[in-house]
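pasting for ref
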Amino acid sequence: MLRARLAFDDARLLAECDVHIHRASGPGGQHRNKVSTAVRLHHQPSGFTVNANERRSQHENKHNAAKRLREAIAIGVRQPPPDQIVWPPTVQIRDGRLRVNESNAAYLEVLAIALDELLAQQGQVAKAAARLGVTTSSLTRFLADNAKAWQEANRIRNAHGLPTLRKA
């Protein structure tokens, strides 16, 4: 399953990728133009390609590219939700509020669960929120906090003939 890769460490994830190291233009002075530090990953199993070139360190760029690949998988790979939603242990829902910080290791898994449920409910946020055990506004805010997830949520809604969500 592709989504299992969300839990892979960088080395295991990079082993499934074609890694292309190249020079990138832009700010950074002479060092950036002399040394190949930019990284492009093409993940064979999913077909996703991501880039990272904001750092002067190839190692840091590989790490950032791996993070972007995990995000692309979480947002771009849908699977049917389970009969009963089970949140990762580090996720707490209080008073129907879903709050997960991006630094939480389970953040991308939660994002994937929310988008899976939204698709299963044909883009209806209220129904997805009810199944997830959170308020509609909490789910909307959670999705709106990630620009790519927000785009995917609106793509799901538009595919089912529903209007685009607006940020509150």
